[in-house]
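Minutes, project huddle
Topic: does the predicted pose make sense with phenylalanine bound?
PN asked that the exact inputs be recorded in the minutes so nobody has to dig through chat later. Recorded below.
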Amino acid sequence: MQQGSASKDSTRWSSRFAYILAATGAAVGLGNIWKFPYITGENGGGAFVLVYLVCILFIGIPVMMAEVSIGKFGRHTPGKSTVEVAKASGKPAFWGFIGWMGVLSGYLILSFYVVITGWGLAYIFKAADGAFGNGTPAHIQTLFADLTANGWALVGWTSLVVLGTVLVVGKGVKAGLERAVSALMPILFLLLIILAVYAAIEGDFWAALHFMFDPDFSKLTINGVVVALGHSFFTLSLASGIMIMYGAYLPEGVSIAKSSLWIAFFDTLVALIAGMAIYPIVFEHHLAPGSGPGLIFQTLPIAFGQMPGGQLVGTLFFIMLVFAAFTSALALIESSVAWLVEKRGFSRWAAAFTAGFGIWLLSLGTIAATCGLPIAIFNTPWGQTNFFDALDYLTANILLPIGGLLLAVFTGWIANKKLIADMIDSPAVFRLWQPIIKFLAPIAILLVFLQLVGIIHL
Ligand code: PHE
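Predicted holo structure (tokens), as shared on screen:
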């Protein structure tokens, strides 16, 4: 056996619970607390939430099961595991590119993920320091603009995040990843509940409930559907190598269907509760729900500056955000680290530092972009864009959906049926899963994707 191969017991999660916790930690992140509330706001609320839930249930969960099955069979990094499945199915090894593509997507995502996590880290200290003042919008605006334009500060915060990630992942699967998520996830859930209860008491609970759960289909656009599907991939950490990698560490006897349902359930629950922790406050203070990516950095702090106990609550909010983001960052770097160990024979520590250094270098592109440095801004045939927006767009809207489509095609049509059925290990579940992964998921993803690139107009 090669060193670092997940065929060894030391590179398995120690229990079903540990796996679900780690995978939930990977799934719950900025996507739930930063992105979900603001895209819900931008897309009109309830109807968008409903479409998002449908996407999670009918596309996200089946694709997650496909990925975990590949990992569980292959017991290696995503590229190699996919090759193993292809070979065992009598198909060419080039199918492994699906796994590689995932690792690449994960790596690219991580390079800007660490920067935003760094903003969150900076905001913990700002909130604790009373920097939101009395919450005048102009003041809060300046705080955010000053941070995102201050390259050196951003490099500092980002470096801390990257270093933290490296130090945990370097310790290995059980001693590093598993221990970190076991400590961070319970605190994260607790903070989230405290914040939601506080928001319900201090904010406009009913307005938030109405906004999030009372669908008004006149507000839903086809673009909203595209965003909902893309986000269901992003939030469940699909098509980014992670679920194949975590599946490779799956202990024997864990049901892929049940554990995937739990992971998706917790992930969705956190997103919905995060919405219910944010929107009551937004509505109480007559702020705009559709204010975009700045929602939690530029809108929410206005309320934190104005409300009773806002200094403490604001601090707890950003701690929660950073915990959530950090457990996802750990997952995002794991496949690259495991690959350096598996393929290049690195020690775990050397691999963690090497992968971390690469991420750190790439993160400079996003930092340069938010600082408005010309080197990170370029013209495309579609107009001007910057390094950060381009990466975000490329990963969330192109690489993840295409990766999901390929995974569905690979496990539904290319891989040996019995091999996958053995992994899923429940004939009834397999019968339900197969038509979804063969037909429903690829067709839905394709339609949405063609719509996105403007080839069709629904
Ligand atoms: N799922 C994580 C989140 O919601 C982010 C993520 C996306 C992680 C894609 C891995 C891959 O924040």
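Observations noted during the meeting:
- The two ends are 51 Å apart (CA to CA).
- The chain has a mean pLDDT of 92.
No decisions taken; revisit at the next huddle.
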